[in-house]
């Protein structure tokens, strides 16, 4: 709860920074009690101006995104001032980080590039990586990308030349010594094919329970050497992601395909494991059970590794909150956050310092856990990739500030694809709802004082409500405020609603702060502190 004295209730930085309540909901219509937590957040970022109640950034379309995208972006890596991105479709894109644009020049430079795999149809991109390997005897840093189609799968390569890039879409199945072939080509159709460059400078490739390898500088062939079985984990497991940990260990994350479909299913009880491998032995030297049904992305974090899993419920009162963020503590994987929404796909996690950000795969919410300010870690919903997103993929920071997020939406007749930067402006539908204030007796609110940070004009508008514990009764205190000047940086309101009526006596209640579209995205009222003065109620 907020700070409560004999005659005041105060919400300030400790409340804004406390993060989401363990039983948070999407609407706040639940009696979350205890702590300084938020019952609900939407695009609320208290780290933008540390310790202030503030909307998150406004997603802004990347130039040419609406023209060149044929699906959402899954993953990408940058090489100098360009990033190379793979779709959940047949295209490879080049993103100009400085100019915030996707290249639209198929007749000239060759981006977007459409993957061609013989006469195969229904090509769907999967993963990508940068790797220095040979083509025709010449070693260079290249962009490799895995994909599936209706017949089989493969890995292509691109030399990333700025003016005349060269693509070889079926590289892995045709070029190296003993290339990718039967039975792995057709057998691996439709499965994830994550890629990672190991500490031994070998490219590792996931394919069901097989770990393939590609030695890009092997002297046996001018195009490197493909290795069918670098490692085999137990049959039935599906490799979804990798991460590396010291000393020289590859962490292989996989789930057991209990459905027999190859896609996994979070609803049914399954098995998820992390296999620790030293690049040399025939078997992993350790296996950790992740106590869940499915695993998606893994990542390196502060000298250890983490991952996202889903399926097994963590709160009987809310069956939809079954997604977890786990961090390896050197002995086991520890749950550090539970959240609603789909776990991020490979490519949907961005780690900067101590802060972990991810994009839920079943919508457009951007979550964050921990921070780079040395304060207590907390879970927050700090942004959105696109307000009406149906599903999402990539979330990654390219350059110093260009956080790229990609999603799609569906309106019963058409798909719409988005690639946005999320690093400027203010979101137009931001929400913060406090956890429940629970007093011993009914009180009468005699005055409300709201303090703001700085000035604002012509931007998003701000509304403050008081709600009952379930959010079913709402009383508006401030409505559609968009201008803050030196004269109203502190607003003092008698115990009245906006329609001039007395605020009903209260005992269990919440405050709800919302930011609307207003008249622009570049400014908004930012809240520093809220003080409510009260006295015992006669009723």
Write the layout of secondary structure elements.
Elements: E1 3-4, E2 8-11, H1 13-16, E3 38-42, E4 60-61, H2 65-68, E5 73-79, E6 82-87, E7 91-96, E8 101-102, E9 113-114, E10 124-135, E11 138-148, E12 153-158, E13 167-168, H3 171-174, H4 184-187, E14 195-197, E15 203-207, E16 210-215, E17 225-232, E18 237-245, E19 249-256, E20 272-277, E21 286-289, E22 294-301, E23 304-310, E24 323-328, E25 333-339, E26 349-352, E27 355-359, E28 365-369, E29 379-384, E30 391-398, E31 402-410, E32 415-421, E33 430-434, E34 437-452, E35 461-468, E36 474-481, E37 490-494, E38 506-516, E39 527-536
Antiparallel strand pairs: 1-2, 2-39, 3-33, 4-32, 5-6, 6-7, 7-8, 7-9, 10-11, 11-12, 12-13, 14-15, 15-16, 16-17, 18-19, 19-20, 20-21, 22-23, 23-24, 24-25, 26-27, 27-28, 28-29, 30-31, 31-32, 33-38, 34-37, 34-38, 34-39, 35-36, 35-38
Low-confidence stretches: none
User: How many β strands by DSSP?
Assistant: 39
CATH fold description of the domain at 3-58 and 430-536: Jelly Rolls
Radius of gyration: 26 Å
What percent strand? over 45%
Mean pLDDT, rounded to whole units?
94
- CATH-defined architecture of the domain at 3-58 and 430-536: Sandwich
In DSSP terms (H or I, runs of 4 or more residues), the helix count works out at: 4
Work out the helicity level: under 10%
